[in-house]
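Homework help board

Subject: predicted structure for assignment chain

Our instructor gave us this sequence and asked us to write out the predicted structure in token form, then describe one feature. I got the tokens but I'm not sure how to describe them. Can anyone check?
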Amino acid sequence: MNGAFRAGALARRGFLSAAGAALVAMPRVARAQTTTLSVGSLGQAADVAIFIARKKGWFNAEGLEIEYVNFTSAANMVAPLGAGQLDIGAGSASAGLYNAWLRGIHLKIVADKASSQPGYAVNKVYVAKRHVESGRYKDWKDLKGMKFAMNGTGISAWGTLAAGLRRGGLSMNDVSTVDMPFPDHVLAITNGAVDGGVTTEPAGTIMLQRGVAVALAGDDELVPRHAISQLLYPEEFIRKKPDLALRFMRAYLRGARVYNDALKDGRLAGPAADEVISILTEATPIKDPAIYRAISPLGLDPDGLVDIPSLEADYQLYKAQGLVNGDVKMSDVVDLSFARAAVKDIGPYAPAR
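My token output:
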């Protein structure tokens, strides 16, 4: 599993900014004071690398203090990030992010936060079990005319569903969607309000355990290494505070690597699993460790690299659906120079044995 992550990371492409290139050779210096950075958080598992790095003191070691600012949605981080009221945020390469860029709110995708690495799907396509039992659903083509629960419009889950529909010769125009929070997917499928959903954990496992849905495929299969959630730096933060940006990234990637050491055979069952589960139960609303052991955990690139082809594919889907009001280049939005510079500083990822 970890070897596959590493091989994938070496194969991926990125964009290097002039500011980031200068950081590669930047020396580390002794620091007499601590700088506080405000970091947007949803309090969910996708923030796991930040939770780990803070718990293990790696931000403090870089002379940083992390102040969490809680949000109910990543979309709500865009305005304060653009206004300089928030230093670092989390989000997804959604239609909303691209439209914000076109409005002059320039946020850079700088590292992976959640991605569907081999065996670790973030999104999965589910269909109501009643349709399987009745024969209404036999193959992907049978999804035509169905209604799907989603958690938003113009987000990565659209890319997941579109990839599944293509297997049946269908498109997004052949189904309808309704947006609702992930926990509501369970009830909506149970009571027949929808025919299926593109759902993440723990809602997916709950539906399977209750016997109300069947998993068709995850996006680790449908869209390998699908970029789901990313770390965002405002352009102004990069320009004015490149040293802080790099210091944060070094600590962040150390956390990402510990998380990868917790993964094994599609579960949180690796050498670092107990430690990571303890941190997650402390930092997120899910307080039962058994839930984290039962669910399929999200993938996270240990070098922070983002799969740009999947970003481009999702962007083209949003454009085709009329959700992006202009043209955006990935080279303008993505800057992996800080991740690459941090990897050069902390060395290659060596999985725990």
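Reply (TA_rk): Your tokens look well-formed. For the description, you could write something like this. The chain has two domains: 2-115+225-346, 124-222. That's the kind of observation they're looking for.
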